[in-house]
Amino acid sequence: MKYTITVMSGKGGVGKSTVAVNLAVSLARKGLKVGLIDADINGPDDPKLLGVSDLKLYADEEGIIPAETRYGVRVVSMGFLIPTEDTPIIWRGSLMHKAIQQFLEDVNWKDTDVVVLDMPPGTGDVALSVAQLIPESNGVVIVVTPQDVALLDAKKAINFAKQLKLPVLGIIENMSGFVCPHCGNVTYIFKNGGGEKSAKEYNLPFLGKIPLIPEIAENGDNGIPAVVINDKIREIFDSITDQILKEAQIENIKQ
Ligand SMILES: Nc1ncnc2c1ncn2[C@@H]1O[C@H](COP(=O)(O)OP(=O)(O)OP(=O)(O)O)[C@@H](O)[C@H]1O
Protein backbone atom coordinates (compact mmCIF):
# COMPACT_ATOMS: atom_id res chain seq x y z
CA MET A 1 0.00 0.00 0.00
CA LYS A 2 1.18 3.52 -0.73
CA TYR A 3 -0.62 5.52 1.94
CA THR A 4 -2.67 4.90 5.03
CA ILE A 5 -5.21 7.17 6.66
CA THR A 6 -6.12 6.00 10.15
CA VAL A 7 -9.51 6.97 11.53
CA MET A 8 -9.50 7.14 15.35
CA SER A 9 -11.82 8.24 18.09
CA GLY A 10 -11.29 8.68 21.80
CA LYS A 11 -14.48 6.83 22.63
CA GLY A 12 -16.96 4.41 21.12
CA GLY A 13 -20.11 5.21 19.20
CA VAL A 14 -19.09 8.62 17.85
CA GLY A 15 -19.37 7.49 14.22
CA LYS A 16 -15.81 6.42 13.49
CA SER A 17 -16.82 3.50 11.24
CA THR A 18 -19.40 5.66 9.47
CA VAL A 19 -16.72 8.28 8.78
CA ALA A 20 -14.12 5.67 7.73
CA VAL A 21 -16.51 4.02 5.26
CA ASN A 22 -17.78 7.28 3.75
CA LEU A 23 -14.25 8.66 3.55
CA ALA A 24 -13.10 5.49 1.75
CA VAL A 25 -15.98 5.75 -0.73
CA SER A 26 -15.30 9.48 -1.28
CA LEU A 27 -11.64 8.71 -2.03
CA ALA A 28 -12.72 6.02 -4.51
CA ARG A 29 -15.13 8.49 -6.16
CA LYS A 30 -12.10 10.72 -6.76
CA GLY A 31 -10.53 7.97 -8.85
CA LEU A 32 -8.22 6.45 -6.26
CA LYS A 33 -7.83 2.71 -5.67
CA VAL A 34 -8.95 2.40 -2.08
CA GLY A 35 -8.65 -0.30 0.55
CA LEU A 36 -10.35 -0.37 3.93
CA ILE A 37 -9.07 -2.29 6.94
CA ASP A 38 -11.67 -2.80 9.63
CA ALA A 39 -9.27 -2.96 12.57
CA ASP A 40 -12.16 -2.98 15.04
CA ILE A 41 -11.76 -6.68 15.78
CA ASN A 42 -14.49 -6.84 18.45
CA GLY A 43 -17.03 -4.74 16.59
CA PRO A 44 -16.41 -5.31 12.87
CA ASP A 45 -19.20 -3.20 11.35
CA ASP A 46 -17.65 -2.16 8.02
CA PRO A 47 -18.98 -5.14 5.97
CA LYS A 48 -22.52 -4.27 7.09
CA LEU A 49 -22.05 -0.56 6.36
CA LEU A 50 -20.85 -1.47 2.86
CA GLY A 51 -23.59 -4.06 2.24
CA VAL A 52 -21.19 -7.01 1.94
CA SER A 53 -21.84 -8.92 5.19
CA ASP A 54 -22.46 -12.13 3.24
CA LEU A 55 -19.04 -12.24 1.60
CA LYS A 56 -16.10 -14.38 2.72
CA LEU A 57 -12.38 -13.74 2.31
CA TYR A 58 -10.26 -15.95 0.07
CA ALA A 59 -6.54 -16.18 -0.54
CA ASP A 60 -4.29 -17.08 -3.46
CA GLU A 61 -0.52 -17.35 -3.80
CA GLU A 62 -0.25 -13.54 -3.59
CA GLY A 63 -2.06 -13.28 -0.27
CA ILE A 64 -5.51 -12.66 1.17
CA ILE A 65 -7.83 -11.10 -1.39
CA PRO A 66 -9.83 -8.18 0.02
CA ALA A 67 -13.58 -8.31 -0.57
CA GLU A 68 -14.86 -6.17 -3.44
CA THR A 69 -17.74 -3.78 -2.84
CA ARG A 70 -19.88 -2.01 -5.40
CA TYR A 71 -18.51 1.35 -4.22
CA GLY A 72 -14.94 0.89 -5.48
CA VAL A 73 -13.56 0.09 -2.04
CA ARG A 74 -11.93 -3.25 -1.19
CA VAL A 75 -12.26 -4.30 2.43
CA VAL A 76 -10.95 -6.78 4.99
CA SER A 77 -12.67 -7.32 8.31
CA MET A 78 -13.07 -9.89 11.06
CA GLY A 79 -16.73 -9.69 10.10
CA PHE A 80 -15.92 -11.91 7.09
CA LEU A 81 -14.22 -14.53 9.23
CA ILE A 82 -16.81 -15.24 11.92
CA PRO A 83 -19.47 -17.92 11.34
CA THR A 84 -22.48 -15.72 12.13
CA GLU A 85 -22.75 -11.96 12.59
CA ASP A 86 -23.66 -12.35 16.27
CA THR A 87 -20.57 -14.49 17.06
CA PRO A 88 -18.43 -12.62 19.60
CA ILE A 89 -14.65 -12.49 19.22
CA ILE A 90 -13.35 -13.53 22.63
CA TRP A 91 -9.63 -13.02 22.08
CA ARG A 92 -6.75 -11.76 24.11
CA GLY A 93 -4.71 -8.83 22.82
CA SER A 94 -1.94 -10.97 21.33
CA LEU A 95 -4.37 -12.73 18.98
CA MET A 96 -5.95 -9.45 17.94
CA HIS A 97 -2.46 -8.11 17.24
CA LYS A 98 -1.86 -11.07 14.91
CA ALA A 99 -5.13 -10.49 13.08
CA ILE A 100 -4.26 -6.82 12.47
CA GLN A 101 -0.78 -7.81 11.37
CA GLN A 102 -2.31 -10.17 8.80
CA PHE A 103 -4.66 -7.47 7.54
CA LEU A 104 -1.69 -5.18 7.00
CA GLU A 105 0.97 -7.60 5.82
CA ASP A 106 -0.71 -10.69 4.35
CA VAL A 107 -3.46 -9.01 2.34
CA ASN A 108 -2.70 -8.32 -1.28
CA TRP A 109 -2.85 -4.50 -1.24
CA LYS A 110 -0.86 -4.34 -4.47
CA ASP A 111 -2.18 -1.56 -6.75
CA THR A 112 -3.94 0.14 -3.84
CA ASP A 113 -3.36 3.90 -3.61
CA VAL A 114 -4.77 4.56 -0.15
CA VAL A 115 -5.78 2.27 2.70
CA VAL A 116 -8.21 3.69 5.25
CA LEU A 117 -7.86 2.08 8.66
CA ASP A 118 -10.93 2.00 10.86
CA MET A 119 -9.47 1.76 14.37
CA PRO A 120 -11.12 0.23 17.41
CA PRO A 121 -12.43 2.93 19.77
CA GLY A 122 -10.08 4.36 22.37
CA THR A 123 -6.37 4.13 22.98
CA GLY A 124 -6.05 0.55 24.25
CA ASP A 125 -4.21 -2.59 23.27
CA VAL A 126 -5.47 -3.01 19.70
CA ALA A 127 -5.11 0.69 18.88
CA LEU A 128 -1.51 0.44 20.05
CA SER A 129 -0.94 -2.64 17.84
CA VAL A 130 -2.31 -0.84 14.80
CA ALA A 131 -0.25 2.27 15.49
CA GLN A 132 2.93 0.20 15.81
CA LEU A 133 2.23 -1.94 12.76
CA ILE A 134 1.35 0.76 10.23
CA PRO A 135 4.32 0.77 7.88
CA GLU A 136 4.14 4.30 6.53
CA SER A 137 1.30 6.21 7.99
CA ASN A 138 0.18 9.35 6.29
CA GLY A 139 -1.63 10.29 9.38
CA VAL A 140 -4.53 10.05 11.70
CA VAL A 141 -7.96 11.64 11.50
CA ILE A 142 -9.77 12.07 14.82
CA VAL A 143 -13.55 11.81 14.93
CA VAL A 144 -15.29 13.60 17.80
CA THR A 145 -18.79 14.48 18.88
CA PRO A 146 -19.24 17.90 20.45
CA GLN A 147 -20.09 17.07 24.07
CA ASP A 148 -17.45 17.54 26.78
CA VAL A 149 -17.00 13.84 27.68
CA ALA A 150 -16.38 12.93 24.03
CA LEU A 151 -13.96 15.81 23.57
CA LEU A 152 -12.04 14.84 26.67
CA ASP A 153 -11.54 11.34 25.24
CA ALA A 154 -10.68 12.75 21.81
CA LYS A 155 -7.87 14.75 23.38
CA LYS A 156 -6.45 11.49 24.68
CA ALA A 157 -6.56 10.11 21.13
CA ILE A 158 -4.69 13.20 19.87
CA ASN A 159 -2.01 12.75 22.53
CA PHE A 160 -1.88 8.99 21.79
CA ALA A 161 -1.13 9.76 18.12
CA LYS A 162 1.42 12.39 19.08
CA GLN A 163 3.23 10.06 21.48
CA LEU A 164 3.41 7.39 18.78
CA LYS A 165 4.67 9.98 16.31
CA LEU A 166 1.69 9.61 13.98
CA PRO A 167 0.90 12.91 12.27
CA VAL A 168 -2.63 14.11 13.07
CA LEU A 169 -4.24 15.36 9.85
CA GLY A 170 -7.16 16.97 11.63
CA ILE A 171 -10.40 16.68 13.52
CA ILE A 172 -13.88 15.86 12.18
CA GLU A 173 -16.92 16.74 14.28
CA ASN A 174 -19.71 14.21 13.81
CA MET A 175 -23.33 14.36 15.02
CA SER A 176 -22.86 18.09 14.98
CA GLY A 177 -26.42 19.32 15.00
CA PHE A 178 -29.82 17.95 14.06
CA VAL A 179 -31.45 19.70 11.10
CA CYS A 180 -35.23 19.44 11.43
CA PRO A 181 -36.55 18.01 8.15
CA HIS A 182 -39.78 20.01 8.62
CA CYS A 183 -38.69 23.52 9.56
CA GLY A 184 -34.94 23.43 8.84
CA ASN A 185 -34.05 24.60 12.37
CA VAL A 186 -30.84 23.19 13.78
CA THR A 187 -30.85 21.68 17.28
CA TYR A 188 -27.43 21.11 18.80
CA ILE A 189 -28.25 17.93 20.71
CA PHE A 190 -24.62 17.36 21.74
CA LYS A 191 -23.68 21.07 22.03
CA ASN A 192 -21.98 23.08 19.31
CA GLY A 193 -18.47 23.90 18.16
CA GLY A 194 -16.50 21.57 20.47
CA GLY A 195 -14.58 19.92 17.62
CA GLU A 196 -13.47 23.24 16.20
CA LYS A 197 -12.46 24.48 19.65
CA SER A 198 -10.38 21.35 20.29
CA ALA A 199 -8.71 21.70 16.88
CA LYS A 200 -7.72 25.28 17.77
CA GLU A 201 -6.52 24.24 21.22
CA TYR A 202 -4.21 21.60 19.73
CA ASN A 203 -3.31 23.68 16.69
CA LEU A 204 -4.75 21.09 14.30
CA PRO A 205 -6.76 21.53 11.10
CA PHE A 206 -10.53 21.35 11.58
CA LEU A 207 -11.68 19.18 8.67
CA GLY A 208 -15.44 19.68 8.88
CA LYS A 209 -18.76 19.02 10.59
CA ILE A 210 -21.15 16.19 9.80
CA PRO A 211 -24.71 16.85 11.01
CA LEU A 212 -26.87 14.33 12.81
CA ILE A 213 -29.09 13.06 10.00
CA PRO A 214 -31.42 10.07 10.37
CA GLU A 215 -30.61 8.96 6.79
CA ILE A 216 -26.96 8.34 7.76
CA ALA A 217 -28.01 5.70 10.30
CA GLU A 218 -30.74 4.34 8.03
CA ASN A 219 -28.48 4.07 4.95
CA GLY A 220 -25.69 2.57 7.05
CA ASP A 221 -28.05 -0.13 8.31
CA ASN A 222 -29.03 -0.84 4.69
CA GLY A 223 -25.40 -1.15 3.57
CA ILE A 224 -25.40 2.05 1.51
CA PRO A 225 -22.82 4.70 2.48
CA ALA A 226 -24.59 8.06 2.80
CA VAL A 227 -22.20 9.74 0.31
CA VAL A 228 -23.64 7.55 -2.44
CA ILE A 229 -27.22 8.78 -2.11
CA ASN A 230 -27.30 11.97 -0.08
CA ASP A 231 -26.10 15.09 -1.96
CA LYS A 232 -25.53 17.15 1.18
CA ILE A 233 -23.45 14.45 2.87
CA ARG A 234 -21.54 13.86 -0.38
CA GLU A 235 -20.62 17.56 -0.51
CA ILE A 236 -19.48 17.55 3.12
CA PHE A 237 -17.32 14.44 2.62
CA ASP A 238 -15.93 15.80 -0.65
CA SER A 239 -14.63 18.82 1.20
CA ILE A 240 -13.32 16.72 4.13
CA THR A 241 -11.61 14.31 1.72
CA ASP A 242 -9.93 17.11 -0.26
CA GLN A 243 -8.59 18.61 2.96
CA ILE A 244 -7.29 15.24 4.17
CA LEU A 245 -5.51 14.66 0.84
CA LYS A 246 -4.01 18.14 1.11
CA GLU A 247 -2.91 17.73 4.73
CA ALA A 248 -1.43 14.30 3.93
CA GLN A 249 0.20 15.79 0.83
CA ILE A 250 -1.19 13.05 -1.34
CA GLU A 251 -3.24 15.14 -3.78
CA ASN A 252 -1.08 14.04 -6.69
CA ILE A 253 -1.17 10.38 -5.84
CA LYS A 254 -2.36 9.34 -9.33
CA GLN A 255 0.65 10.90 -11.06
N1 LIG B 1 -23.95 11.89 11.55
C1 LIG B 1 -24.74 10.88 11.89
N2 LIG B 1 -26.10 11.00 11.83
C2 LIG B 1 -26.91 9.97 12.18
N3 LIG B 1 -26.46 8.77 12.59
C3 LIG B 1 -25.12 8.59 12.66
C4 LIG B 1 -24.19 9.62 12.31
N4 LIG B 1 -22.93 9.13 12.46
C5 LIG B 1 -23.06 7.86 12.88
N5 LIG B 1 -24.37 7.53 13.01
C6 LIG B 1 -24.93 6.26 13.48
O1 LIG B 1 -24.49 6.06 14.83
C7 LIG B 1 -24.21 4.68 15.08
C8 LIG B 1 -22.77 4.51 15.53
O2 LIG B 1 -21.91 4.85 14.46
P1 LIG B 1 -20.58 4.03 14.15
O3 LIG B 1 -20.81 2.57 14.23
O4 LIG B 1 -20.02 4.59 12.90
O5 LIG B 1 -19.73 4.51 15.40
P2 LIG B 1 -18.30 3.98 15.91
O6 LIG B 1 -17.67 5.15 16.58
O7 LIG B 1 -17.55 3.34 14.83
O8 LIG B 1 -18.76 2.89 16.96
P3 LIG B 1 -17.83 1.79 17.68
O9 LIG B 1 -17.25 2.49 18.85
O10 LIG B 1 -18.81 0.73 18.07
O11 LIG B 1 -16.81 1.30 16.71
C9 LIG B 1 -24.52 3.96 13.77
O12 LIG B 1 -25.81 3.47 13.81
C10 LIG B 1 -24.42 5.06 12.70
O13 LIG B 1 -25.24 4.82 11.57
From TrEMBL:
Highest taxon listed in the record's lineage: Archaea
Swiss-Prot/TrEMBL GO biological process terms: iron-sulfur cluster assembly
Keywords: ATP-binding, Hydrolase, Iron, Iron-sulfur, Metal-binding, Nucleotide-binding
Positions of ATP binding: G10, K11, G12, G13, V14, G15, K16, S17
Family matches, as InterPro entries: Mrp/NBP35_ATP-bd (IPR019591), NUBPL-like (IPR044304), P-loop_NTPase (IPR027417), YlxH/NBP35 (IPR033756)
SUPFAM superfamilies, sorted: P-loop containing nucleoside triphosphate hydrolases
Signal peptide: none
GO molecular-function term, one example from the UniProt record: ATP binding
Keyword presence, Kinase: no
Any Pfam family matching the protein: ParA
Family statement drawn from the similarity comment of this UniProt entry: Belongs to the Mrp/NBP35 ATP-binding proteins family.
HAMAP family given in the database record: Mrp_NBP35 (MF_02040)
Functional summary from the UniProt entry: Binds and transfers iron-sulfur (Fe-S) clusters to target apoproteins. Can hydrolyze ATP.
Oligomer and partners: Homodimer.
Protein name, per record: Iron-sulfur cluster carrier protein
Organism whose genome encodes this protein: Thermoplasma acidophilum (strain ATCC 25905 / DSM 1728 / JCM 9062 / NBRC 15155 / AMRC-C165)
